[in-house]
Design brief:
By secondary structure, the protein is α/β, with parallel strands linked by helices. The protein has two domains: about 200 residues, Vaccinia Virus protein VP39 (Rossmann fold, 3-Layer(aba) Sandwich); about 60 residues, Helicase, Ruva Protein, domain 3, CATH 1.10.8. It has twelve helices and nine strands. The strands form two sheets. It has a seven-stranded mixed beta sheet with strand order 4-3-2-5-6-9-7, sandwiched between helices. A two-stranded antiparallel ribbon has the order 1-8. The relative contact order is 0.11. The structure holds S-adenosylmethionine (SAM). The site of S-adenosylmethionine (SAM) has 23 residues, from strand 1, helix 3 and strand 3.
Length: about 290
């Protein structure tokens, strides 16, 4: 980054401050969009923490989803990593570009103005391994993580900010009340844990919810080798069907989908409920009842 003063505050340069974000929004006649989950991070310490938790540096390739006005983007680029940032909102792009041009001396950033769900990621990601770092739009965070982790094998490591409840569900283990579809489907591909909490005060505008940072690490092997044969689509279908009636025993919730003999053959009691099954159990079930 340059050592020029912050244009909004006259103070030292650094990730965007609250007053700077407000001024950027005003100068581009913008109001944060609730529909697009726009809560902008304005805390340099938190940006540093996220960059540290992601463990990125020169030589790394980072995908940022939803750079907004660039708070996190500047920290990611300052780490020396090469960054691709995908932002859906075309009205933010001018503010983002001007901020980046002001603070950054290098060309380590590519901005793509598109919906992350529409981007041709195979082409964008090319042959590299990637780290995903993002303050995710809350309304699409969980389905987006599940879709990308399943469809993009080169996304190795993630540090993402999500609503606390969504984060807790993603990392939950069997037996927990909040263990459910996202927990099982994510754990098929990766391990995940909560690595930090983020207070609502650090955003503009302030959201009504708390946020957490989730670190996700893709498994080098999908699962124990004998279970790797499980078809992930079949597994997902079984998980969605059973958790659709989570209070019911498997013999009831999977009635017509898997017969009782197959449940037993997978080493699972038909009287068990879905939240009692580990991802290995689900994988076994998907293998014996394809
Ligand atoms: N990274 C910025 C920060 O931390 O201040 C902004 C984070 S804000 C919570 C989420 C961002 O994701 C917004 O800039 C929003 O416009 C963008 N966004 C929402 N849906 C998107 C999508 N489908 N594809 C790409 N970006 C999206």
């Amino acid at each position: 980054m340059t050592d020029r003063p912050d244009p909004a505050t006259g103070g030292p340069p650094g990730p965007l401050s609250r007053s700077h974000i407000r001024r950027l929004l005003d100068s581009h006649s913008l109001a944060p969009s609730r529909a697009l989950g726009q809560n902008f991070l304005c805390d340099a310490g938190m940006v540093d923490k996220i960059v540290r938790l992601a463990g990125i540096g020169p030589g790394d390739h980072v995908l940022e989803i939803g750079p907004g006005l660039g708070s996190l983007t500047l920290g990611l680029c300052a780490s020396g990593a090469t960054v691709v940032a995908v932002e859906i909102d075309r009205y933010l792009i001018d503010g983002l570009r001007s901020t980046v041009a002001y603070y950054l001396d290098n060309d380590s950033l590519t901005i793509i103005n598109d919906d992350i769900r529409q981007v041709d990621l195979e082409t964008v990601l090319g042959g590299h391994r990637w780290v995903v770092v993002a303050n995710l739009p809350y309304n699409i965070a969980t389905p987006l993580v599940l879709d990308l982790v399943a469809s993009q094998p080169t996304l190795d490591r993630w540090v993402v900010m999500v609503q606390r409840e969504a984060g807790e569900r993603l990392v939950a283990g069997p037996g927990s009340k909040i263990y459910g579809i996202p927990s099982v489907l994510l754990s098929y591909w990766a391990t995940a844990k909560i690595v930090g909490t983020v207070g609502a005060d650090l955003f503009l505008p302030k959201p009504n919810v708390e946020s957490v940072l989730v670190r996700i690490d893709r498994r080098s092997e999908p699962l124990p080798p004998e279970l790797a044969a499980a078809d992930p689509d079949r597994l997902a279908k079984l998980v969605r069907t059973a958790f659709g009636q989570r209070r019911k025993m498997l013999r009831r919730s999977l009635d017509g989908v898997v017969d009782i003999a197959a449940i037993t053959a997978a080493g699972i009691e038909p009287t068990q409920r879905p939240e009692q099954l580990s991802v290995q159990d689900w994988a076994r079930l998907a293998t014996v009842a394809p």
